[in-house]
Amino acid sequence: MSSNNLSSDTAPDSSPSKPSPATGKLGVLLPGVGAVSSTLIAGVMAARTGGATPVGSLSQLEFLPNPDDHDAVGPAISEACGLAGLDDIVFGGWDPISANALEAAETAGVLDHRDLAPVSGELEGVVTMPAVFDQDWVRNLDPVRIKEVSSKWDAALELIDDIERFRSEKQCDRLVMVWCGSTEVYRPAGDVHATVESFEQGLKDNDPGIAPSQIYAYAAMMTHTPYANGSPNVTCDAGFIEQLSLERNVPICGKDFKTGQTLLKTTIAPALRARMLGVRGWFSTNILGNRDGLVLDDPESFKSKEVSKLGVLHDILGPDQHPDLYGNMDHEVRINYYPPRGDEKEGWDNIDIFGWMGYPMQIKVNFLCRDSILAAPIVLDLALFMDLAARAGESGVQEWLSFYFKAPQPAIGAAPDSHIEHDLFVQRDNLLAKLNAWAK
């Protein structure tokens, strides 16, 4: 495929007010078939036969509000919005370690054998493709299944070929891509990321500033595949991807799945703000023993995660508006790799608050959660909702999906100082409002 074809083949500008029908198969492509992806795939396969309830998934279990009667239950989201059905999903992906989803699930150890056994054959059938991987960006993993290419441009072309071959072989009518790979080291976007032209030249020049995740996102845009960024990587907020999203009429969203500690933080902080209670300090620490924990044991990878976590409280509490309550707050975040914990992450929060006449109080939170169990339904929802957005002709950043992210991205073209909504309940209202507008 030539560079001229890649750059000029743009999608139509039309944006239908209602989504087109979800006919045929939906291919869900997952860069990074590890703990989260294999847990998602196993859960969907079990849910198809009634062997499991998709707990945690709004797309499968929630109802839209009834505008005529707030006390009555509205229609199910999946039916009202015409979402793709679980039976219509076909999974694929890339991984630098595991050859298929069963191997990934057994290595991750998230699910018990009794849950894997009934779907083991199907899981084994989800064969992964060799990954685009660069150890300069993820230092604590030792890859065994990577693409041998001479340049990042060749890597992009191979990913494009992978996507189109998957579409053809699996007879998919539509595709979506959700990044479930590792957190890359923190490097802000630079000049090479500014435009499509500079990025393509950087690919050909093997520019060291281009991360693997950005190559996947580029390949997604070039194949008209909606892209959701589940990590804190600097991907969908780079200029080239925003430009491609608009030019090719492909929706994007991100970043960093909101699963454990930040889920609670965006629940508790709005309550404190609503009661005008002051916050002097918020100390958060985690222990985690899965592949994600291993990757985050590298300080530069942790920096990416830290940046995505630290912005939450500032945007919810508004210290500029209420400096006496929140202007002198210390916010610290720690993640410690602890192999015995595996995927069962444990998060501790110590919150120092104060009330009437400045008297101090404390809140202690100990959240013993399962990282991939919380993340899997997020990936499912994002895949189905991004497909819905694509069928409605949407492009650019899908702000209405901020509910699912630690560091939700503002709309393309938003002012640098524009407010980013982190309040979980406001985010949920925005999500349901968007879906309600698309309901049949």
Would you spell out the secondary-structure blueprint of this structure?
Blueprint: H1 3-8, E1 25-31, H2 35-48, H3 58-61, E2 63-65, E3 73-76, H4 77-80, E4 89-94, H5 101-108, H6 113-116, H7 120-125, H8 152-169, E5 172-179, H9 196-204, H10 212-222, E6 227-229, H11 239-247, E7 251-254, H12 261-274, E8 278-288, H13 291-296, H14 299-317, H15 323-326, E9 330-337, E10 346-354, E11 360-368, H16 371-391, E12 396-397, H17 424-438
Helix pairs in contact: 2-5, 2-16, 8-9, 8-10, 9-11, 10-11, 12-14
Structure, described:
The relative contact order is 0.15. Helix 2 crosses helix 5 and helix 8 packs across helix 9. The chain contains 17 helices and twelve strands. It is an alpha/beta fold and 440 residues long. The N terminus is likely disordered. The strands form three sheets. It has a six-stranded parallel beta sheet with strand order 4-1-5-6-7-12, sandwiched between helices.
